[in-house]
Amino acid sequence: MYKNGLTYFSAIALLFLTHLSMLGIVLVRGNYESPADLMLLTAGVLALDVGYIIVTGIYKQMTYTTDFMLLCVLGMSLIFQSCFGGVHLSFKHLITCIAALVLCQAGFLLTRNHEWIRTRKKYIYIIIGVLILSILLLTGDRSMWINIGSFSLQPSEFIKPCFILICAASIVELHKKIKILFFYVSKDTLCLCGAALVIFALQWWCRDLGSLPTFAAVFACALVCRFCYPRAKISRTALGILGGVAAVVLIVAWNLAPAYVQDRLHVDIWADQYGNGYQQCQALIGIARGGWLGLGPGQGYLHNVFAYESDIVFSTICEEWGLLYAFLTVILILMMLMIPLMNPPKNYYHAMVADGVVAVFVAQMALNIFGSCNLIPFTGVTLPFISMGGSSMMTCGFLIGMLKATQSPLFRHQQETEQPEKKKSRKSAKTAKPARPAEKEVNA
């Protein structure tokens, strides 16, 4: 991959070693009825690894680090989800893992060309509008889920990558400003703020306040990128006004929060262990019960608690695999986010995309883990790539593809080919003989 780094085959060997070591733990400490269950799980994990390695080998890339990190995390997630309550291959989670890998490549191919995205901003706004209308018309009474038989879909998850793209694609338009009252603002910034307000209002109306901090984090990154833009020229007065408005909004939202939110904010979980505090109490007990090394795959109790595979999945992993494995999983996800950020972005579009994607993952991880540890109330937000959920898994895969697109090898190649041409044109201009000055006419 890189000089003095892991080679391609060394990375593959490390990937297989990680998954095989986890399967070895399942073999020794797991709760399975027959060896056939373990063999089926092993076949599913290895088939996922081999299949994706073959597919990514079809086309060449400058680096496969992000792909292998994603594959490693998804393999670990498949093993986790297949061992809760007993060892069995979770076909549903396997399918969502495959969908995440496919959408990772789709996100990479669709978002790497910033000019192509910038000229199609209106279509992204239309997609956001269609998703919002589907939530209002098809989900029922103030819900975020569309239920089709046994299949459920959460359209609000797909708004996240669209929101990041309009934040990134509109940043280059900051120098095109119009005067409104006493302020100079760009039309794209007004459209972006309007879209953010609509999304915030939708989350509030549908009582999905858990996702509200995620969108707020992306919007905050968009504002910071605009403040840092060279042509923004935002005055300190405007910054002070904006900060004051944000503070007032937070205070009002805190005081006007619905009753169920106020109850979650002020509940004493240990005084109400079998009521509103039951889930968090069991999550804390599971973490303490598992210790550093866990009780063993499938040996825990939390699989009997509601949302053990999604909202409190961090606690379920801690109980069965131990706090050490849970921390290792979180570190791997953070490393996957940091690796594409080691190289500076090529332009402000890619910088905003990278900031927005990282903001989504960090916000969701913080909400899920801190909620499981009772540091904040439960929000119902999933742990990226680990929690069960098709909509969340597909969105996370697409977001990783967007993050990988910020270091697109295609456009680097274009830049490398364009630079020599510019140098040649400069050299030819320097070596060209200057034209002789026109001779003055002599009057007879």
Overview of the molecule:
This protein is mainly α. The chain has helices spanning 8-29, 35-56, 65-83, 91-111, 114-118, 121-138, 155-169, 187-205, 212-228, 236-255, 259-266, 278-290, 313-321, 323-338, 348-372, 390-405, 409-431, and strands spanning 146-148, 151-153, 177-180, 183-186. It has a two-stranded antiparallel sheet. A two-stranded antiparallel ribbon has the order 3-4. Strand 1 (146-148) and strand 2 form a beta hairpin. The N and C termini lie far apart (77 Å). The relative contact order is 0.12.
Write the layout of secondary structure elements.
Blueprint: H1 8-29, H2 35-56, H3 65-83, H4 91-111, H5 114-118, H6 121-138, E1 146-148, E2 151-153, H7 155-169, E3 177-180, E4 183-186, H8 187-205, H9 212-228, H10 236-255, H11 259-266, H12 278-290, H13 313-321, H14 323-338, H15 348-372, H16 390-405, H17 409-431
Distance between the termini: 77 Å
Write the element-wise H/E pattern from the N-terminal end onward.
Answer: HHHHHHEEHEEHHHHHHHHHH
**Roughly how many Å is the radius of gyration?**
26 Å
Largest sheet data:
2 strands, antiparallel
SS content category: mainly alpha
- Specify the overall morphology: globular
Which segments are poorly predicted (pLDDT under 50) over 5 or more consecutive residues?
410-425, 435-444
Total number of helical segments? 17
Count of the domains? 1
Approximate helicity band: 55-70%
Q: Provide mean pLDDT, rounded.
A: 82
Strand order of the largest sheet: 1-2
Proportion of beta-strand residues: under 5%
Number of beta-strand segments? 4
